[in-house]
Each structure stands twice: as C-alpha cells, then as structure tokens.
Known about the structure:
With 509 residues, the chain is of the alpha/beta class. 32% of the residues lie in helices and 27% in strands.
Amino acid sequence: MNGDVVLAARDIVKRFGGVTALNGVSFELRPGEVHALCGENGAGKSTLIKLLAGVHVHGSYEGEVRIDGAPATFHSTRDAEHAGIAIIHQELALFPEMSVGENLFLGALPRRRGLIDWDQVYARAAAILAECRIRLDPATRVGDLGVGQQQLVEIARAVARKPRVLVLDEPTAALAQHEIDTLLDLIRDLRTRGVASIYISHKLDEVFAIADRITVLRDGAAQGTLNARETSAEEVIRLMVGRRIEDLYPRRQPALGATLLAVRNLSAAPRRDAPPVLENIGFEVAAGEVLGIGGLMGAGRTELLMHLVGLWGVRTSGHMELNGAACEVRGPRDALGRGLALVTEDRKRFGLVLPQGVAFNVSLSSLRRLRRGPFLDADREVMRTKAVVADLRIKVHALDQAVATLSGGNQQKVVLGKALMTSPDVLLLDEPTRGIDVGAKLEVYELINRLTGAGKAIVLVSSELGELMGMSDRIVMLCHGRIGGVFARAEATQERLLAAAMGRHPQAA
C-alpha cells in the first residue's frame, strides 16, 4: 500500500431540506487500502458513500470529490462506475427471475453475431464465482437462493466490474460465518491487487480483522481517522457515541422472583411425519432474570422461541408452564393473552409492516386492548404510542411516518415497542441487536435492565458470545436441537460456550 490517494472527499456538506447530513466531512482512500467507515445509524455513512458513488450528484453538495487528485463531477452512478467505483448496497439490487450469470453481466451480456452467447455468459460467470470462492451454479435462478447467497452474488457482480474502489455497505448482515470468512479473504486478495475498499459495518470484530484505517462519523461530522493497529474497539465506540463505555454490556441483575416460564422435556418436529428438531429441552426463567440461549447456526434457537408462541412445529413431548401453571399455547394471539411475547429476529419480514406508520406498527398486537366497544379508540392508540415512542426514544418525525424510512435501530425499537405495549410477563428476544449500531445496542441493553428491574423475565437468543456472556444471568447452549450445556454467568467463557455448542462439553451447571 503506498501513500497516494485514489479517492478523496474534501470538506463535504450535504443537506436534505433543513437537515444537515454531512457537515464538513473529509475522507481519503489509498490504493490497496481497506478503510472502514464506522458510526451509528444516522451518522452520515450512507450519505457519504452515495455521494462518492454518484447517487448524490455533483452540485447537490458543497465541497469536492477527487479521483487521483483531479476533481470528479459525477452526474450519475454510471459516471462513478466509469471512474472505477463499485458499490454494494445493503438492499439487494438483483433480478430474482434471472439466473446468477445473467445478474452478473446484466447490461453487458456477451454476444455473438448479435445474439447472447449463453456459453460465454455461464463460462465467464463460473470463472468470476470461482475467483470469489463462491460455490454456486451460474445457471441457478437467483430467486431460488437464500438471502446470504444472494448477497454473495451481489458481491461477485461488483468484483466482475474490475473496480479500483469497492464500497461495501454492511455486506455481512445476511451472511453465515463461513460466508463472512470467504468475503474477508476475497477483500484481502483484492487488496494485494491494489483494489481499495471502503468497508462499512457495525461488527467491530470484522472491522479490526480487515481494516487498515478507520474513520468514525458522528452526527454528520468526522470524529477522526485511526490506524486500526494502533487503536481499540473501545476507542472507536467512544468516538461513535460521544462517551467512554467502560462496560459494553451494562447488565444489572435485580433480586430474582418466582419462576415465570418453565419448559419441561420439550421435543418438537416441523410437522407430524418428520423427526424432531428440538429434543428434551428444559429450562426455567424467573422474574428479574435474563436467560441467554446460544448455539451454532441450525442449533434450533429460533425454532424454540417460535414454538413457544405457537408459530412453529408440532410438539411431540413435554410441556410449558407460565406463572406456575401448565399451558398449551395455540398461537401468537393466545401467547400474548397469557403474557408471552416474541420479538422476531427478522424484523422486516415478520416484525413490521414497512409501508405503514409507526403508530400502526406499535399498536398492531394490542388492538383488542385499544378498542372502545367494537371500534378502535384512535385517541387512546395515539396516547399509548406516544408513550412508547418517548420511552424507547424512537426517532420519528410523526407517528404516521412509514417504518421503512427509519434507521435499523429505530425499526428495532418499533418491534420492541409493539411487544411491550402488550404488557408481557415474559419477553422472548431473538437476536434483538442484529444489524443495529453500538448506540442502539446499548439502548436495548438498558431496556433489558429496566424490564428485569420491573420483574419481567427475558429469554435472549444471540449469536454474539460477548452479548450472551455480558447480558445473561444464565446461559443455555443448544447443539443440534439438544441442550449442550448450561452455565452460570460466572462460569461462562467463550471457549466453554463454543465447546458446548459443538457437543464437546458436559453440562456445567
């Protein structure tokens, strides 16, 4: 990596109406460098990269963008592409009805005698996929792929353009760990060829694994650029949120009360003629307690929570107790009526109606409680929603603002608010901090503390071992649908938890 600058932004100011999204931001990228861009949701990261990629065109902002030291005047994304900039957005831009190969070369399909040369399409696509270490058949229809595989196709499409600058906006949000490892190895390979990358991620472990330098944005202003090898996650977080965080997981455990939820020898299958996915699961969680549930992908964590609220599977044995009494939950409405609420891991698919407003979404699970006779009491709905928005500090312009326009952290707060409006005794949280920034995570952790302080019981599923160890009072590790180990807070280490998740550890508590 040399000291030249391939891409630079100088004193950028970008406004949307009366809101200043970027305020005097400067940024530079060197050839062969991986430069991480960190900041909370709303800090200005996406605005900056859209400006660098020609989405926000020249003349719509103050300051200048320079390529190889010369002013760049991008009037479209095509201008940026011609300059060698390829951007991978959070939202996929693939055509699901087309094949992987067609998506890779869309707009530039190889032709022979005026006709598309399909042999060339798939041969070249196979070569690019192999270069990216992605094991996919280029003839596969994209709509038949999982979200993680589609994200890899999006990445391969960007690499196929032979960019000088690759911009990756939260590229691993939908990827499994082995896919993340593949992506990071690819970025390292591109670095050796002189390709520069701008890497945006909330996952600081990835940032420190791949980045040469880190620029932190807060409230539209650059807080500094740090050499990754000379700083720490704590320092980056301090710059992101404007305060020093001595403890990333501020768990405060109140005195425990009575057992609110107990699961006894539970086994469940996806359907009646299928073998069980969950086998002999048993645990208890008391008022004021956070019970963490971990495990590797496919261990059955999400299936367990969804089964408890009647959304997944057929029970083959065992039972559940709520507030000391055995019960059979027959569906989500029945679960809510019994004081059991689930916050799903996939907020966009199962937790929110994205085109609808905040009030609509927050009150959706509480409509029966908000009725006056046969009709919805609109005044009461507004009053209760305002209270939730204020309590969770959800950043909205108006209660009818479409949830799709909110940041990831605020969308997650809406999902949490919807559950809390039902006044549950037991709250099941499935990956509640996935895809949100550090500041929003801390707010979720403080909410957990408030809820347990008020005598609620929390079941917390997380794939982040640090989060499990930091926020749980006890931890249950699942392994292939069975309990691989149970650990008190003081006993839990990453090594012991991983060993239990892989079935190599006896139950420890």
